[in-house]
């Protein structure tokens, strides 16, 4: 789904969302309140400039509109694989974006992420995945890396990883697997405005991903390990 269609299905004509290249920004009126909308489009690679632009949008909202909800629209192919961005400190820029989103949550802003097209790797980790709740459209594509790349990194045969991905969501791409693991809270179907309304009302401000993953059978040990570490401390 392209972003203009998505914006219309979420807000009708009550939005002021624009694209500056790959950067989406603006605001929308929803149920009598204003929502800041930030994100990316065109399968954007997240480089230093784009990460800092999104961070600026979050910080402007904290300064000018305390408590205003923030909706992050995610469509990214991951971090920008370019020497210039590496030299400029892409790791620090993306960490800064994540810190800004975390600060917004701590200051009482409800932050929601919505993967509407594609979400890969670090471009996803420091945006929608760090929100209070991350959601996705059923047709969206989410993965950390393709199986051939995973095979190269892990030194395991691709056939073995393919077999593991059939039964273990941790090894498998796809939105349903990320729901099973708890990374995606729910899929938004049919009336997207109804889905947004429910998410604004019901998404917890505490991190429930490990517990959700255990309950859904997709991430069976994380919650238990976290509990043991906390008790040991």
TrEMBL record:
Keywords assigned: Lyase
Pfam families on file: MdcE
InterPro entries: ClpP/crotonase-like_dom_sf
GO terms, molecular function: lyase activity
Enzyme Commission number(s) of this protein: 4.1.1.87
Name this polypeptide is given: Malonate decarboxylase gamma subunit
């Amino acid at each position: 789904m392209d972003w203009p269609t998505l914006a219309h299905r979420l807000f009708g004509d009550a939005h002021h969302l624009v694209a500056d290249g790959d950067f989406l920004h603006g605001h929308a009126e929803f149920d009598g309140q204003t929502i800041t909308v930030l994100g990316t489009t065109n399968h954007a690679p997240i480089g230093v400039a784009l990460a800092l632009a999104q961070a600026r949008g979050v910080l402007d909202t904290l300064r000018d509109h305390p408590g205003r909800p923030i909706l992050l629209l995610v469509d990214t192919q991951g971090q920008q694989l370019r020497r210039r961005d590496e030299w400029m400190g892409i790791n620090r820029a993306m960490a800064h974006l994540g810190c800004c989103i975390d600060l917004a949550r701590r200051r009482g802003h409800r932050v929601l992420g919505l993967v509407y097209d594609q979400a890969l790797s670090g471009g996803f980790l420091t945006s929608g995945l760090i929100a209070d709740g991350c959601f996705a459209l059923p047709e969206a594509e989410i993965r950390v890396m393709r199986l051939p790349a995973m095979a190269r990194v892990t030194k395991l045969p691709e056939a073995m990883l393919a077999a593991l991905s059939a039964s273990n969501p941790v090894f498998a791409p796809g939105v349903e697997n990320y729901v099973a693991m708890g990374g995606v809270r729910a899929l938004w179907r049919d009336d997207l405005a109804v889905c947004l309304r429910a998410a604004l009302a019901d998404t917890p401000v505490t991190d429930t991903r490990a517990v959700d993953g255990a309950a859904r059978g997709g991430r069976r040990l994380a919650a238990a390990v976290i509990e043991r570490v906390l008790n040991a401390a």
